[in-house]
Amino acid sequence: MSKSPIKSTGKVTGIIANLVIVRFDGPVSQNEVCFIQDEDTALMAEVIKVQKGQAFVQAFESTRGLKIGADVEFRGHMLEATLGPGVLSRNYDGLMHDLDTMTGVFLQRGEYTDALDAEKQWDFKPTAAEGDTVVPGDWLGEVKENAVVHRIMVPFRLAGKYTLKSLAKAGAYRVNDTVAVITDSNGRDIEVSMVQKWPIKQAIRAYQEKPRPFRLLETGVRTMDTLNPIVEGGTGFIPGPFGSGKTVMQHAISRQAEADVVVVAACGERANEVVELFTEFPELEDPWTGRKLMERTVIIANTSNMPVAAREASVYTAMTISEYYRSMGLKVLMLADSTSRWAQALREMSNRLEELPGPDAFPMDLSAIISNFYARAGIVYLNNGKTGSITFIGTVSPAGGNLKEPVTESTRKAARCFYALSQQRADSKRYPAIDPIDSYSKYLEYPELQQALNEEIAPDWVDKVNQLKNILIRGKEAAEQINILGDDGVSLEYHLTYWRSEICDAVILQQDAFDAVDSRTPIKRQHYMLYKVLDICDTAFGFESYEEVNPYFKRIINQLRQMNYSEFDTDKFKEFEAGLEEIISERKAG
Amino acid sequence: METQAFQRIYTKIEELTKATCMVRATGVGYEELALVHGRLAQVVKIMEDAVTLQVFAGTEGIPTNAEVAFFGKPPTLQVSEALAGRFFNAYGHPIDGGPEVEGEEREIGGPSVNPVRRMQPSELITTGIAGIDLNNTLVTGQKIPFFADPDQPYNQVMAMVALRGQADKIILGGMGLTNDDYLFFKQVFENAGALHRIISFVNTTENPPVERLLVPDMALTAAEYFAVDKKQKVLVLLTDMTLYADALSIVSNRMDQIPSKDSMPGSLYSDLARLYEKAVQFDHGGSITIIAVTTLSGGDITHAIPDNTGYITEGQLFLRRDTDIGKVIVDPFRSLSRLKQLVIGKKTRADHPQVMNAAIRLYADAANARTKLENGFDLTDYDERTLEFAREYSDRLLAIDVNIDTEEMLNVGWALFAKHFSREEVAIRKDFVDQYWVG
Ligand SMILES: Nc1ncnc2c1ncn2[C@@H]1O[C@H](COP(=O)(O)OP(=O)(O)OP(=O)(O)O)[C@@H](O)[C@H]1O
Ligand SMILES: [Mg+2]
Questions:
Q1: Which fold has domain A222-441?
Q2: For residue B339, which atom of ligand 1 is closest to its CA?
Q3: What are phi and psi of B437, to 5 degrees?
Q4: Could you tell me which residues come within 8 angstroms of residue A39 by beta carbon, excluding any fewer than 6 positions away?
Q5: Nearest Cα residue in chain A from B276
Q6: N or C: which end of chain B has fewer CB within 10 A?
Q7: Any idea what DSSP says for residue A147?
Q8: pLDDT score of A313 more than 90
Q9: Is the CB of residue A339 less than 8 Å from the CB of residue A140?
Q10: How far is CA B282 from CA A282, A303, B130, B289, in A?
Q11: How far is it, in rounded angstroms, from Cα A512 to Cα A432?
Q12: How far apart are CA B42 and CA B76, in angstroms?
């Protein structure tokens, strides 16, 4: 990338909310960052259009008080993320400014803090050898960042092959210290530190290939792992009307999932929900390592009262950080809540620019923007043959809860898992309110995943999962019949079919995200409970009339729920299980 | 409003619409306040020397040679302790016959609190109403609206919640209030001897609708003064936010913006979130809690206004008339307090979450039984029992005239369970059943 040595400048000629029009001299590029000088404060902005010799820039701040004629300075680069050791555990705004080092109670316009601590010393260990041929993304050394081995890489922005001329010895360095010198084919030396910058709207492509995902990503959420699993490097989305449980679900996943690094983008949602993460993550344990959850987490917060223009940037910042850690061979999980707010931010700006609107006044290219974004996730083989992955799950907040709206429809094309939250289930407090029949995981159809599941969990696992799905579908049909014809208008078998699905619903699907035990079910336990429940569904029971069915199955469900609330395999768990066996033997036929 | 010496005055108005005018002027700041023909206006667009102003009271009768005087600053409010006990209009001017308030001048609609400076809300607000305290527990720092049809007694319930809610200050932001409702609030606060902790910013149906746009920002600026500077617990009441959103759409339509769903501006979500997100809990104990009213038309919550509100607020409270008992209840199905899990079972008795959920589940079973009945089917014994339970539950817990403490609510819950159901049917965690089952 070439950088113009002389920076262009300009003057403000128009202001409509956060859209600022600038007359400029010298070259200006699309998406270039500029600063608008409003008296003593410099407001950060980004070029989004150039027309008739004027740049249209979106300010990432309120433009209150700004006047015509204000000076503008262009920076010669696009919006960038600052990548290096120390990103983990941090709370950033959408443009990757550290929220914790800002002064004051209120966010001050134009206060931009550094992403990394420049003074902190890191214990660097070289892992490459002088004389090695290296390409962008290759690992030169490492530092320990919390539980993660943080690789120091050849900067992604370079291109081609380099020779490693010198590499620092093991020791303590600050992020900006030079730790390596590499030489390009023309003999030019380039100094490499532990920090690099990357334009957030571009994907980092320092890997060999992106295979189809093939490994389960365990979340501990039963309706996902058992019924519609997401995979390492997979994509999924959770659409649902307000209050149906999108955020609770994402928070549960962020706490429980089997990931090395979790990047949470709070995009245009409630500040109190982010505060919940700030408060709980430093205390809660990562179930996989026993360390504090915050150690593996990065939070990008652009809450709904923070500048709208930075909303779009926030998801790209989060994705860039995810790609950075993926390049170290790590399992990254990225969550964004809610991608609809990002789409709305695009809509606001597109309307201000008076662009031709697409459906529901969203920009015409919304679908392409969403697809490109989801395409940045995935599992990859790095140049050294190791794997790294980004699993991405976004929420969607459809207007009026209607799934036939542009953001949901565009996302459906891009994401492979669909976790549809149903208003009806949420209303009857059947949490998580994921509709078991409408939802799907395309990955479950992948033979390579089926094989992996059968090998890791049980030889007939996938068959059992399909059996579960059938029971749920037939139960729904039976319920409809009973509703139409009445309890005594259908045969006893309908009641049994319905209640079998009710057991599956109550014990496998429903899960209390606020109960310490029930919230996270390891796959081994999911296996145990699924087979237990399917066994009951396969059992023939003797009943005289349909009136006996409801109370009897309720007792079974009650007992199974008590098991769900007890630690696995403890005496208490076994006691409830024994109670269950007793109830079953009461009516077991034969 | 008198014009002052330092003001810059222009007289070249080139465009007029119902709500806006465009004048040639220089040196104007974005969002700056101005007087157009004696009416308050705010800058919404500047292109070179073409300055577009939104005239709050409308542009009727404004001539093209009218005087436009710029103030050199955005809208402000003078804040001090003297705000307490006073009634103001949308511009922050007294309407109670008292003097102007002296104090520090603050811009309204100021910046947001840095999220890392917030505290997680954890302080219970008790109201005595079981439909709220038991099923939809509120906490300080929360924002929650009543979703109600226009004929429901939302203002009454809101006033009751406000007075029982142990707040240091209650700030009323009235938008499009009828004069009767305005007098009602005044009366209730006065009768409760609470006038000294009330501050009101009121736009009534007699005032121009666009003026309403200033009301929430005025109320919240006053709230921030008391919550941040004075570390007080502030409760802000905003009624009716639907009329606020209507005013937004009037302005945006007159500015030729492309409307999105239900003729609302595409920025409705951000516009509302900016206000509601002022709800906050600080570590020093100061807090802003927002209770709002969003009136529905025909109970339709998919309309853009309630829909966007639901996506912003931390739950919503639905009022409904229960014809079985002839009382207004807080509907347990559609109502939700998102922050309740921060306090229930922690600040309240440990069985609270389970009792709450079990009762609602049984109430849902009763609703199914009622559907069966309406469709002409026979009811099972269980169905019959759920119906009896539902009636008693509605009367003794859901009705808005209930006024008991939370412990009592839980005890009533257990009593109703034992009266109508077996332990298995209630399906609560065994240790709680062992401890609290009646009989
Ligand atoms: N798994 C669960 N277990 C128990 N309660 C839940 C669960 N999921 C959701 N809830 C309840 O539903 C409420 C709303 O959930 P959540 O905040 O996740 O909704 P949302 O879909 O993110 O809504 P919005 O779009 O408005 O942000 C929670 O506050 C909680 O009371
Ligand atoms: Mg949410």
A1: Rossmann fold (3.40.50)
A2: 29
A3: -60, 135
A4: A65
A5: A305
A6: C
A7: T
A8: yes
A9: no
A10: 19, 17, 27, 11
A11: 8
A12: 12
Q: Tokens standing for A344?
A: 């709305």
Closest to B396 in 3D by CA, of B302, B317, B325 = B325
Burial of A521 (0-12, 13-18, 19+ CB in 10 A): buried
Q: What is the DSSP string of B30-58?
A: TT-EEEETTEEEEEEEEETTEEEEEETT-
Q: Which of B34, B261, B4 is closest to A340 using CA atoms? A: B261
Question: Which residue(s) pair with B238 in the sheet?
Answer: B173, B292
Mutation choice for ligand 1 from A431, A520, A565, CB with most ligand atoms inside 8 A: A431
The residues, ordered by sequence, that sit 6+ positions from B434 with a Cβ below 8 Å of its Cβ are none
Q: Which of B180, B170, B185, B192 is nearest to B287 (CA)?
A: B170
Place of tokens 């006044």: A361
Angle at the Cα of B296 (from B293 to B302), degrees rounded to 5? Answer: 115
**Token pair belonging to B101:** 């308030």
Stretch 69-88 of chain B: residues touching chain A, C-beta under 8 Å: 74
Segments making up each domain of chain B, as ranges: 9-70, 84-340, 352-436
Three-state DSSP at A142 gives strand
Evaluate the CA torsion angle A400, A406, A409, A413 in order and state its sign. negative
CATH of domain A114-197: 2.40.50.100
CATH of domain B84-340: 3.40.50.12240
Contact A394, A335 (CB under 8 A): yes
Distance CA A224, CA A220 (A): 8
CATH 1.20.1510.10 fits A461-587, yes or no: no
Please give the CATH number for the structural domain made up of A9-78.
Answer: 2.40.10.170
SS3 content of chain A, % helix, strand, coil (to 5): 35, 25, 40
Q: What is the CA radius of gyration of chain B?
A: 25
Structure token pair of residue B294: 């969003």
Region label for A453, one of left (φ > 0), alpha (ψ between -120 and 50) or beta (otherwise):
alpha
CA pair distance A262, A333, nearest whole angstrom: 5
Find the mean pLDDT for residues A42-63. 95
Q: Residue A240: CB within 6 Å of ligand 1?
A: yes
Contact A305 B112 (CB under 8 A): yes
User: Hey, which residues does A145 pair with through a beta bridge?
Assistant: A148
Q: Does residue B141 belong to the interface with chain A, where contact is any CB pair within 8 Å? A: yes
Task: Classify domain B9-70 by CATH number.
Answer: 2.40.30.20
Both structure tokens of A292: 């504090």
Our answer on whether the CB atom of A514 is closer than 6 Å to any ligand 1 atom is yes
Count of Cβ atoms closer than 10 Å to residue B93 Cβ: 11
In the numeric block, which tokens belong to residue B2? 């008198």
% residues pLDDT > 90 (chain B): 85
- Token pair for B244: 């606020």
Q: Taking the domains of chain A in order of start, what are their residue ranges? A: 9-78, 114-197, 222-441, 461-587
- C-alpha B152/C-alpha A551 separation (Å) is 39
Decide: A36 and A70 in contact? Cβ < 8 Å.
yes
Nearest chain B residue to A65 by CA distance is B29
Residue A79 tokens, joined: 């919006």
Token readout for B61 is: 């009768």
- ipTM of the predicted assembly exceeds 0.90: yes
Mutation site for A-interface testing, chosen from B45, B53, B230, B424 by largest number of A Cβ within 10 Å: B424
d(CA A482, CA A490): 6
Q: What is the pLDDT of residues B130-144, one digit of tens each?
A: 999 999 999 999 999
Q: Is B307 close to A242, i.e. CB distance below 8 A? A: yes
d(CA B197, CA B165) in angstroms, rounded, equals 12
Residue B311 CB–ligand 1 contact under 6 Å: yes
Cα–Cα distance between B84 and B79 in angstroms, integer? 10
What pTM was computed for the model? 0.94
- Residue B218, pLDDT > 70, answer yes
